[in-house]
Amino acid sequence: MTINKPIILFVAILFGLALQMTGVHAKSLKTAQFAGGCFWCVEADLEKLKGVVDVQSGYAGGHVKNPTYKQVTRGGTGHYEAVKVTFDADVISYRELVDIFWRTIDPTDAGGQFCDRGDSYRAAIFVTAEQKAAALASRAAAAKAMKGKIVTPILDAGRFYKAEDYHQNYYKGTGRVLTRFGYIKQSTAYKNYRTSCGRDKRVRQIWGDAAPFAGS
Asked: Looking at the predicted structure, is the pLDDT value of residue 74 above 50?
């Protein structure tokens, strides 16, 4: 069988362009780590942002390797419930991401977030050396905007441990879970938890119309 050389050349050019485009896109993908109380809620909020490619629930900031959910919530591991955000820096910058994050939490609370109390539910931003200046500038701007003291720390990023599979995308799960109201759809259980925990109510009290996801 004879293969037309111009066709081969055309295919090779297309393949090369595809590789080039993939490389450029990969270079624009960055990651960020945030802790804002229940990681189900932080994941649900940040996944709505244009330019966010993926959000994983997990654990960060502690000293125990490969921690489990029970270990973290029981205490003593040093870990926060956290998320790792993969985002396209050509669409949303790290500074923009941090600016929005402040407006999804209560940065005046050092003992947890909303109804969830304890070390694992504290808020924090975990930064690389490259991200630190932007995070600090964002915190200063947020404190000025809310006219209050922000106690949420900015910490050096360490290893992020992905949480168990059943925690990923919990807010849109289609299975049924047992609650005090009986077996209900997982996404409904999440909405009930979020409402009863007072997350959106408190965020609106602090940020008003600047709260992007309160009530969503």
From this structure: yes
